[in-house]
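Sample pair:
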Amino acid sequence: MIESFHDGEPDQDAEEMVRRSSFGRHALWVVGVTAFAVALGWATALVRIGPDQSGLPPALPGSVWPYLTVWGVTGLTVAAMLRATAAKVPLYAAGRTAMLLTALGTRLSLGWRPEALVLAALITAALAWAALWCAFALRTTRPRKTAGDAAPDERPGRGASPLGK
């Protein structure tokens, strides 16, 4: 999410880094991304849940808290799934993806107030998108060779040239 600059040019590899860190930092990231996305979805839905001054018909009456709670839990799940994948393999735009899915779901739910079945479909779509994003990253990542990965017959002194020819 944060781009690093060196001599005025963005670091293209910074977005797709493996995010190795302590569990506390991962948990803080997940909670922070989710809280920001739910707040963003709520703020963009204010035109539909606020007073009728903008000319738009207000959303159906009722409390917004159940929808905020549902999308908070969904956002935590999506962000945790994406962050867990980003801790293992390079994952492009994990934070932006989690924020987009959570904020969009919150915005749609608060402005539209769907029934339980439609809300479950929205949640399933968000979770499926995150799962596909993670599966794509896991599938397309090439294994990196380390010094201990060489086959026994390829090491110098065992029939192979030290120059690798």
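The CA atoms of residues 79 and 98 lie 5 Å apart.
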